[in-house]
Specification:
The complex is a heterotrimer. Chain A is mainly alpha-helical. Helices cover 76% and strands 3% of the residues of chain A. Chain A is built from 22 helices and two strands. Chain A starts with a helix and ends with a helix. Classes of the chains: A mainly alpha, B mainly alpha, C mainly alpha.
Chain lengths: 493, 105, 643
């Protein structure tokens, strides 16, 4: 039993409560938020250091009864999968606060604090009801931030993302409740703990339907092809910090859900969905990339870019072998870093020029070389140039696909081409050429902005040059999860 | 004096049908009110008849009680009708469709 | 044998690039520290070259098949995907190491003069060192994954350097084109690697273990691997059909063209095939395909080169053409000849580009040869060295190109591939023609030209710094003497280079008499080409004018067969159209549309049911009555039926 995860989850919410109670000034508020984010980062790093990659199962578990009658528990725990996402969240938050540093709207800050609790809670919950609770909690601040502080049709777009995700969540909630009830009817007591539900002897047909509920929720969150029309509009309207969270973290939670609950609970029926998931993610990868080519809005362009990469991650998860899973997990982290970088920089462009329309930009490289350097760097990391972490991840997924089937491998390797389709043309029109009126006075990165971007760039380089520093953290557990999955899937058929 | 109870039922049914016909076909609120009263009285008649057919005075009691209630209700009803009339200067029931859903959407 | 020197060689330029990049971006006033950039930017390659010489010296004391390895750390290790960052210097990579560092250093020195007045001086050297590091990573890698990393990074460096003058969007378009086409090749390459990894039954994915494990693999699958890897080479080495980026890549500064797009990066494909020699030896059909592509590219590029007017584009097509020769060699299994031509080509083509760069600088960036003209007297040093290089590429005896090219053609003939040989000879003729066309028009033909041309105003000639001149002489020396390193037995030599390389060559013996005849024929053909060029451009029947193309086929060749347009129509526009279609139709109409359809259905039902609540009292009463009546009737029948 360990309380560290509880602190990690609730510290931001607690800070929001305390700061809100005293209605503090902007300067205190931002210092408090930053302090809480840094504390969480420190705790997370501490956890990562103490984390034992060789041990099986969950670590730092906190399991307390909560609602006795229905077996709902307060159940937090951490394994390699959640650790990676947790690290990403903890790392990104201080950088986002750095981005927001001069923003005096206090509602913004409170929402971010709540958002952090929501996303970390969702990653660490092992009780499905608790998970659902956090999964919905994180949606609210996003809804408010898009609706309240967003731009360009923000109300309509906030409503769109809300309706889409709630639709998925409802299906999932129904499945969760049914699972708990099934546990009751099989064993005489209620339980929503993940590992209890995984052992339920459901008949295949029921399991198939319940899996559909979960998959719908995650497919919308990721979003997979066909469930994605909320994405570009929400990305285009969201204020930058919310946008970073959306792309770097929340979308990853869809993948996480698919991985933990899809593969954890429904191992024996998931093979029914595999062809669909495979097709959706493969086609989606290229579909989004092609769609991005002619986007004029930078945010929308990288929304589709993000979709393309998330499809690739989903593809890796569906491939279900050691290389692909390692690659997917690695890509979760590295894509979060790269997309956070690119979206923050798009935010900076917006602050400086009041536009993110590509047609209104150009020639930034001539006036702001540091900016151009970082922007190119992040864009290239999204393309997956070697030396950045994305390359390692993509390579692993490609290798994983080849171990399944050569054709699948070749199809997956098209990811090499996907991002390239739009990134270079975009760079050409934003950074290069002669400066246009809106960029003539484009200020180069100042110190705060450099400090904000440098950790992301540095981490991307390190993850690209020495992945062996990071992979041992998760490969043993991935292997164990894989064995478990294969065992469970094989046991049913 | 004993009359065949079927006659009572026939009268009650007749009254009730007349009431319904009134409610459906007439537009004047006062007439609708009268029609409702007609139906109530039809029910009262049936209650009294059954009470007499069986050795049970409960039905008569309820019928008597209802006459009281109807009297009270009449006062209320008439007051409402007066209020309604003041609002629109009409007693046509078709004129009062403020609570409709279908038209506005 | 193990040594840390190879790692150091690779790291040095990267380190230099990092330091210079940091100073350029973050140190206030760092952009003008030209001497610092010279010290670091030229120092790193020179040091690398020195260390390279030491390592190669060490290697030569070892037996032929030995190699010096330099493991640095484990890059990634997941399952059997165990990749080390480790470098290896064997005979093959030693040659590449020397070519890259020596020619690279000379071009770095040359670039000091060439770029001195550019405000992006520091940035240029940072990129340039970065490229050198990536190239060394590529050639010294001890496993294909590391090679691929270097392979991609040189492409990135090439992208950055082609787009160096980024204010002009045309340059960026060229850079994009180069990177995108390279990436298309890399897609093939990485697929090949993935497939190879899956075929690999033994643990370990370094070259040695891969080649050891080839025995049991299915030949059809291996052929596929070989083909896919070669797709990567098509992109990197600008062969049909992925070559169109190379001429556009000339948008970069001339030292870039010399180093990246002539001497080193574009030859990576040849090196890769030679590196995978044990693989390609098992799949001769694919080898033949490679040779065929090489020959076709050589011929096509030579044709294009003969119709170009831009001095750098002529040289670019010439590079593509020479690369075609190398692919003929490695495709047919004569790897050492291919590598030898690669080395010789690195010297004379770098020299040609640097000479061209000198001309361009002297004339304030005029690149049309018909507007340059008659420079021989004004730039004697450049003229002389250019002549050496031109003779070398033409294949005139004693110059390097003679030995290296003729070895390839002789082998092609001896092994019975007469079609390839004939194509090679035709290319030799065209090479002589277009190179001397270039030489004659630029240096020899009398100064004439329209009044607008720069050459008529000698006062406007920019002086050339010394650092741009003396590297030319060193390279010229290389272009003259390098050939003797691989003097064939027919001429009393011992093919020292080929034997020393220790590659799994195919051999086909040719009698000395036959070899004399073939070589004689080549020289004759070359002289014929020179004669034609001389007739047309030095002693022209009419005053020299830029050629006007009247016939359709002439125009087509001058426009390089409209390949760019074809690519644009077939690939670029459909993709954009598709993207537009998705944006306008599929997403909003089909996906959102079907969702909206659901919403409309739901709303419709709600509207229809809301109509029941019309506020009409009598209507309510009627429905009420009907409902009650219906219910009563039902009850009546149901109960009546029961009793």
């Amino acid at each position: 039993m360990s309380v560290v995860l509880t602190w990690i989850v609730f510290l931001p919410m607690l800070s929001a409560g305390v700061l809100g109670l005293f209605r503090v000034r902007h300067t205190v508020l931002r210092a408090g938020a930053m302090l809480s984010a840094l504390l969480v980062l420190a705790l997370t790093l501490l956890t990562a250091v103490q984390f034992d990659p060789q041990a099986e199962g969950m670590q730092f578990v906190r399991h307390l009864p909560w609602i006795f009658q229905y077996g709902i528990t307060y159940y937090l725990g951490l394994d390699a999968l959640s650790l990676v996402i947790l690290l990403v969240i903890a790392l990104l938050m201080p950088l986002l606060y750095l981005y927001m540093w001069d923003n005096p709207t206090s509602g913004y800050w409170y929402n971010m604090l709540l958002l952090q609790t929501g996303v970390t809670g969702a990653v660490l919950s092992l009780d499905l009801v608790l998970f659902y609770l956090f999964y919905e909690t994180m949606l609210l601040p996003i809804f408010i931030m898009i609706g309240r502080y967003g731009h360009d049709w923000n109300h309509a777009h906030a409503m769109k993302i809300l309706l889409f995700t709630v639709l998925g969540s409802m299906a999932m909630l129904f499945a969760i409740l049914y699972l708990g009830y099934a546990h009751y009817s099989f064993y005489g007591n209620w339980s929503f703990a993940w590992q209890d539900l995984a052992k339920l002897p459901l008949d295949p047909q029921t399991a198939t339907w319940l899996a559909a509920g979960f998959l719908l929720a995650f497919a919308i969150k990721i979003p997979l092809l066909g469930f994605h029309t909320w994405m570009a509009t929400a990305y285009a309207s969201a204020p930058t910090p919310a946008l970073v969270i959306l792309s770097a973290i929340m979308a990853k939670l869809g993948i996480y859900g698919l991985w933990r609950f899809g593969y954890g609970i429904f191992a024996q029926v998931l093979h029914l969905y595999e062809p669909i998931l495979l097709a959706l993610s493969l086609v989606g990868m290229l579909y989004y990339a092609i769609h991005a080519i002619t986007q004029k809005d930078l945010r929308k362009m990288f929304a589709y870019s993000s979709g393309s990469h998330l499809s690739l991650i989903a593809l890796g998860v569906v491939l279900a072998n050691l290389y692909a899973w390692s690659g997917s997990l690695y890509l979760i982290a590295t894509h979060a870093l790269a997309s956070a970088g690119i979206f923050l920089m798009i935010g900076l462009i917006h602050q400086r020029t009041d536009t993110v329309q590509i047609d209104g930009l150009g020639g930034i490289a001539s006036v702001a070389p540091r900016f151009a350097f970082f922007f190119t760097f992040f864009a290239l990391s999204i393309v997956g140039v070697p030396g950045t972490g994305g390359f390692v991840a993509e390579l692993l997924i490609i290798i994983g696909a080849f171990s399944v089937h050569p054709w699948l491998g070749a199809a997956t390797a098209t990811t090499m081409l996907a991002a390239m389709l739009f990134v270079f043309w975009m760079l050409q029109r934003t950074l290069f050429g002669a400066p246009v009126p809106s960029t003539v006075t484009f200020a180069d990165l100042n110190r705060r902005e450099t400090v904000m971007l440098a950790p992301l760039a540095l981490l991307l380089v390190i993850t690209g040059m020495a992945p062996s520093l990071f992979t041992p953290l998760f490969t043993p557990q991935i292997q164990a999860m894989l064995l478990q999955f294969v065992h469970a899937a094989g046991g049913a058929s | 004096m004993t009359v065949n109870p079927d006659a009572y039922f026939a009268v009650a049914t007749l009254l009730f049908s007349l009431g319904i016909l009134g409610v459906i076909s007439r537009r004047n609120l006062l007439v609708i009110y009268l029609s409702i009263e007609l139906m109530l009285n039809a029910v009262n008649l049936i209650l009294a008849t059954f009470s007499r057919l069986r050795p049970d005075e409960g039905g008569t009691m309820i019928a008597l009680f209802m006459i009281g209630v109807i009297a009270a209700e009449a006062a209320l009803f008439l007051a409402v009708i007066v209020q309604i009339y003041r609002k629109k200067q009409t007693l046509d029931s078709d004129a009062f469709t403020e609570l409709a859903q279908g038209k506005r959407l | 044998m193990s040594s840390s020197l190879p790692s150091l060689i690779v790291l040095l330029p990267f380190l230099g690039a990092g330091v210079m990049g940091f100073v350029y971006l973050f140190v206030p006033g760092g952009r003008d520290l030209r001497r610092f950039y010279v010290a670091v930017g030229v120092g790193a390659p020179l040091l690398a070259a020195l260390l390279g010489l030491i390592v190669v010296g060490e290697l030569l004391t070892l037996p032929d098949s030995a190699s010096i390895t330099s493991p640095l750390y484990t890059w990634v290790s997941i399952g059997s995907f165990d990749i080390d960052v480790a470098f290896v210097v064997d005979r093959l990579s030693a040659v590449m190491l020397l070519v890259v560092t020596l020619v690279g250093s000379l071009i770095h020195i040359y670039a000091v003069g060439y770029m001195w007045d550019d405000e992006g001086f520091g940035k240029f050297f940072a990129y340039f060192n970065f490229f050198l590091g990536a190239m060394l990573l590529l050639v010294l890698a001890d496993n294909p994954i590391l090679l691929f990393i270097g392979w991609e990074l040189v492409g990135l460096a090439s992208y950055l350097l082609i787009g160096f003058y980024h204010r002009d969007t045309a340059n960026i378009t060229a850079a994009n084109k180069a990177f995108v086409l390279n990436r298309v090749g890399d897609f093939g390459f990485v697929s090949g690697l993935g497939l190879l990894f899956v075929l690999q039954k033994q643990p370990g994915f370094d070259f040695a273990s891969i080649f050891a494990g080839l025995g049991g693999a299915d030949t059809a699958m291996l052929s596929l691997v070989g083909l896919l890897l070669f797709v990567g080479a098509m992109g990197k080495s600008a062969q049909i059909p992925l070559y169109v980026w190379l001429p556009d890549a000339m948008a970069g500064p001339t030292p870039v063209s010399a180093l990246i797009h002539a001497a080193t990066m574009v030859t990576a494909g040849v090196y890769m095939v030679a590196r995978f020699a044990p693989l390609y030896n098992r799949i001769p059909d694919v080898g033949l395909f490679i040779a065929g592509i090489g020959a076709a590219s050589a011929l096509l590029a030579a044709l294009f080169a003969s119709w170009q007017n831009d001095i750098k584009k002529i040289l670019a097509y010439s590079t593509m053409s020479q690369l075609g020769y190398m692919f003929i060699a490695v495709g047919l299994g004569e790897y050492s000849n291919g590598i030898f031509h690669l080395a010789a080509h690195a010297f004379f083509k770098a020299l040609l580009f640097m000479g061209a760069g000198a001309v361009i600088v002297a004339l304030h960036h005029e690149q049309d040869i018909f507007k340059i003209g008659g420079l021989g007297r004004r730039l004697p040093a450049v003229r002389r060295t250019m002549l050496v290089a031109t003779l070398a590429i033409t294949g005139i005896p004693i110059f390097a190109g003679f030995f290296s090219k003729d070895a390839i053609l002789a082998y092609a003939f001896a092994s019975g591939h007469t079609t390839l040989w004939a194509m090679g000879v035709a290319v030799a003729f065209l090479t002589a023609y277009y190179m001397f066309r270039l030489y004659f028009v630029v240096f020899v033909a009398p100064g004439h030209r329209s009044p607008s041309s720069h050459a008529s105003q000698s006062s406007s000639m920019a002086p050339l710094p010394r650092s741009m001149i003396w590297p030319l002489f060193l390279l010229a020396a290389g272009s003259i003497f390098l050939g003797f390193w691989n003097l064939p037995e027919a001429y009393g030599g011992g093919d020292w280079f080929s034997h020393g390389l220790h590659l799994a060559d195919h051999t086909a013996h040719l009698r000395s008499a036959e070899e004399y005849m073939l070589d004689g024929l080549n020289v004759l053909v070359a002289l014929l080409g020179i004669a034609v060029a001389y007739r047309k451009f030095v002693r022209p029947a009419h005053p020299l004018r830029p050629p006007v193309h009247r016939l359709a086929w002439q125009r087509a060749l001058a426009n390089t067969l409209y390949i760019d347009t074809v690519y644009d129509r077939l690939i670029v526009r459909p993709l954009r159209g598709l993207s537009d279609g998705i944006d306008r139709c599929i997403d909003p109409k089909i996906i959102d549309g079907s969702l909206r359809g659901l919403v409309a259905l739901y709303r419709g039902i709600a509207l229809q049911s809301a109509r029941l609540q019309n506020g009409n009292l009598r209507w309510y009463a009627l429905t009420f009555l009907l409902g009650v009546s219906g219910l009563s009737l039902y009850l009546l029948i149901a109960i009546g039926g029961a009793s």
